[in-house]
Amino acid sequence: MLPSNARRLMPWAMLPTRIGLGAVFIAHGAQKLFGWWGGTGLQATIETFERSLGVPPYLTVLAAGTEFFGGIAVILGLLTRLSALGLACVMAVAVWTVHLANGFFLNWSLTPGQGHGFEFNLTLIAMAVSLMLSGPGKLSVDRLLGFEND
Q1: Could you tell me the pTM of the whole model?
Q2: Which of 58, 93, 94, 129 has its CA 20 to 30 A from that of 1?
Q3: How many CB atoms lie within 10 A of CB 111?
Q4: Angle formed at CA 43 by CA 46 and CA 37, multiple of 5 degrees
Q5: Would you call 62 exposed, middle or buried from its count of C-beta atoms within 10 A (0-12, 13-18, 19+)?
């Protein structure tokens, strides 16, 4: 049994997860959509995904939009479970189509011709699934609107 002070903190436990997960996806989505932070922007992303992965343009737009707007929603705690599901799906597709072939580990040595493994994607999926199971916790729009209870 948890001490009462620890139990009081439990509703706050998902806030750092929401902030971390959302920040990562906002950054990566913004790279794809707007070319921010060293990204190439939407048109180049569409061309790259189509050429190298065979992904149709509408799915690239859907994935990039899910990353950016899903990241914002997760930070806000807005439709948290649904937003987290979308982010987990984007990462599962990334693992399947790109990262699984490169093994588990990231390419820390930046070996030319070798991509990153799926360890980071797995971490993001685990964070998203945690939000799907637990809900947003405190300081969320979902709680404010009555979608979630303490």
Answers
A1: 0.91
A2: 129
A3: 8
A4: 100
A5: middle
